[in-house]
Write a structure and sequence with these properties.
homodimer, two-stranded antiparallel sheet, alpha/beta, 8 strands
Chain lengths: 393, 393
């Protein structure tokens, strides 16, 4: 087991009706003026925004609104939010939505407390030194952004999708009502489920490390999602299935599941970020389209690990004489599962075909113009990335 | 899944040599003068206290020392610590030891910030309103007190063992170096392992609730302890086995494992507290001596739950036609495991025999003179408790 630090101070309030505690929780954090940040019109139409506004009003909290966050949230709206918050003296940001809204809120939080342009943090030109406090009312089980120290923003100038991680941005609280996910379209539910699984798998397939409890908890979480995602798709108002997915989403990305090993592989995430920056695909669907090609490219690097996944997560039977067969069976089994929830297992199934030139461009961008490698399970250079994009197209 | 809140802000720093960060972590918490609280002479003789003192000195932190904490920590020493801290203007308590030392530190922390006698909190006469900040350098994998909101203190006046739980007492940080547990006697290692398992099992055997991810994580943790405890006993310096036990101990008692269900059954803990108050047994060994008798007394209340435990934790084969057989097989299997690590499965194996009068007294005390019932898996009254003590003797 490798040395690690673990600290997730985010207060989780989980269950029916918890969004109505928003005002009180912001007061408890010392917030005085709130940016209510959200996505499209569904939060408005469903009455959710109204309930939250009444909660803020009951707590005596003034607020301003900024909607319009889109999947793969944009730098332009972040900059607009920063200007608005500075003008209105906002000191607390309440994100109402899924990971895109929370990520956008985190970026605005960065911008409020720094004098330089916020993109400098995402392009790694400058290190952040703080962030305005964030709270979240979660409406989508997927990214785990409600408890994570991560944010990913897309810069429309070049369609660069970049992360800006630090402990400063971890939300102070997350209000998690599974009922708020009942109305999600099936595709978004499934894409979110895959995202949850991938946050776990990126931590599971890493450089070798003895971390048995962490392994077993990863396996527990993956099996829970595999069991409950089809239930939620068949019956969108199954509270327990929605609740399992929502809780799994938070635990998958709060660093609990890499305790005692390195911080994860993240190759598929980094490649998907390029794809998502160029084509605007749903994040989980993009991961689903790439993972099998990544797995077949790297599995021989540690066959035992893929066999463990096959047996402990996908319930395959271990072929002791030929564990590589079990490893491949596990990869097939999860692709079968992805298909069963209408998620793609190649890029064509995302709805478009990559040209050779696009693959070259994606790999070049993901390798930061040839200056970085990615991955810890197996280190990948620009050529490896191009090979995986090619296998996945 | 039932509604729940979850917030564990304790900062975990885990790995080799982390005790040397004590001074810096206390500074980060704003501590200015420290009570260094510990147990017997082993921390002194091993050089651990010296290393920590150098860390405090390097951080410019003055400190006073108070040793002498014993298992089932005593109220008299807590009162001595409170007087010392008030006299010396101590504002931070660093516990160096296992659960007893940390529990004692929490009680002292309560005492510093309240004007009334600290036992009033444990006897439920008064509710706590705060606690001085606590940090821990852990030397024993067992109670999970390093991340928990629990403390248990024994009042020598009547030998009453009582808990005084609140969020105020959760440690600010826990420095966890598995190497510090290498020198534990085998009996303490095993007793600690059982305690970790029982913190999980008290949360697993509760009133019915759909909480699949929580169930699976409980099972993951129990299997990890069952795998690693024998390894640590066979080779006390196996770093990974010691690390798995230490991390499992923290996760078992930080409320992660009752997310979405009620807060646990705790019958065995409450009965063992009376036993420990009267006879001063090692906590885990006391739990081990009682659990099987409790399980056989209550299992018919929810056979499916005990069958799930048997199959998913103890690797029994489910007898679909007679699941009660599987349930009983699981109880036998864990008793076999307890015996394999030299833990008792009845009170005689603890080294003494209970008289009828003692059983009556234990049950009467545990039922708060007949005024309370215990348990959530099955509610137990004073007569039930006496029956279980009788079966266990």
């Amino acid at each position: 087991m490798t040395n690690f630090s673990y600290c997730v101070p985010t207060k989780i309030v989980f269950g029916k009706g918890v969004e109505e505690q928003a005002g009180q929780e912001i007061l408890a954090c010392g917030g005085k003026k709130v940016l209510l940040h959200y996505g499209g019109g569904s939060a408005e139409r469903s009455g959710l925004l109204g309930r939250i506004e009444r909660s803020l009003e009951a707590a005596g909290l003034p607020y301003v609104r900024l909607g319009g966050v889109v999947p793969n949230p944009r730098l332009s709206l972040v900059r607009e939010g920063i200007a608005l918050c500075k003008q209105e003296n906002v000191d607390f940001i309440l994100a109402v939505g899924g990971g895109s809204v929370i990520d956008s809120a985190k970026a605005i939080g960065y911008g409020i407390v720094h004098d330089f342009d916020v993109w400098d943090i995402f392009s790694k030109k400058r290190a952040p030194t703080g962030c305005a406090p964030i709270g979240a009312v979660l409406t989508l089980s997927a990214t785990g952004s409600e408890t994570s120290a991560s944010t990913v923003i897309t810069n429309e100038d070049g369609w660069l999708k970049r992360s800006g991680n630090s402990e400063y941005i971890r939300p102070r609280f997350a209000l998690m009502n599974p009922e708020l996910t009942y109305t999600l379209p099936p595709y978004q539910t499934a894409s979110g489920g895959v995202d949850i699984m991938m946050h776990t798998m990126e931590r599971y397939f890493t450089a070798p490390a003895d971390a048995e409890l962490t392994d077993r908890m990863c396996e527990a979480l993956l099996k829970t999602v595999i069991h409950n995602l089809p239930i939620a798709l068949a019956n969108p108002e199954d509270y327990n299935a929605r609740a399992e997915l929502m809780w799994a989403g938070s635990l998958s990305h709060c660093d609990l599941l890499n305790a005692g090993r390195d911080r994860g592989d993240w190759s598929c995430h980094q490649m998907e970020h390029e794809l998502g920056g160029m084509f605007d695909v749903a994040h989980g669907a993009g991961l689903s389209a790439i993972w099998g090609s990544w797995a077949r490219y790297v599995y021989q690097h540690n066959i035992g690990r893929f066999a463990q996944f096959a047996v402990n997560v996908m319930d395959c039977t271990l072929d002791f004489a030929h564990p590589e067969r079990t490893a491949l069976e596990g990869i097939c089994a999860i692709e079968t599962f992805f298909h069963s929830v209408n998620m793609p297992t190649n890029i064509k199934e995302l709805g478009f075909t990559l040209t050779d030139a696009q693959i070259t461009e994606l790999a070049h961008k993901c390798a930061f113009d040839g200056t970085r490698t990615i991955g810890s399970f197996q280190t990948l250079n620009e050529q490896d990335m191009a090979a995986i994009f090619t296998a996945a197209r």
